[in-house]
């Protein structure tokens, strides 16, 4: 949905819909900005391993990227928030499998706590299809 200011709001039911006043992603000036993605699923109350949470956020990111017409190879910058920096290696392994040979810029930021008692949150910026 295009906003009056030329920003395109992206939404897909293939990833959890926003629970607050924000968009899953927006496209503007040839870039796509994905909001922070938590490893939420339809299975309520289940506590997943860190690896499972990473797999979930990457799957949600992929679904949102596909909804925009972008691919993993279009990802420019990733920011990852983790509640235990000791899980960095697990994240890196899963991320490498997800991205393949593509290596976007990335930051891993340790934080004390995340919403819904999650262990990882991911946000990213990608190049929009047709952007130079």
Automatic annotation (TrEMBL):
PANTHER family: 2-IMINOBUTANOATE/2-IMINOPROPANOATE DEAMINASE RIDA, 2-IMINOBUTANOATE_2-IMINOPROPANOATE DEAMINASE. This is Reactive intermediate/imine deaminase.
């Amino acid at each position: 949905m295009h906003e009056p200011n030329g920003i395109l709001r992206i939404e897909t039911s293939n990833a959890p819909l926003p629970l607050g006043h924000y968009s899953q992603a927006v496209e503007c000036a040839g870039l796509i900005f994905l909001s922070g993605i938590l490893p939420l699923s339809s299975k309520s109350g289940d506590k997943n391993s860190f690896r499972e949470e990473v797999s979930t956020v990457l799957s949600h990111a992929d679904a949102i990227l596909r909804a925009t017409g972008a691919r993993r190879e279009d990802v420019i910058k990733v920011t990852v928030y983790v509640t235990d920096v000791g899980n960095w290696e697990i994240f890196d392994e899963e991320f490498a499998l997800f991205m393949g040979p593509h290596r976007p810029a990335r930051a891993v930021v340790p934080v004390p706590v995340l919403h819904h008692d999650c262990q990882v949150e991911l946000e990213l910026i990608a190049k929009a299809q047709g952007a130079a």
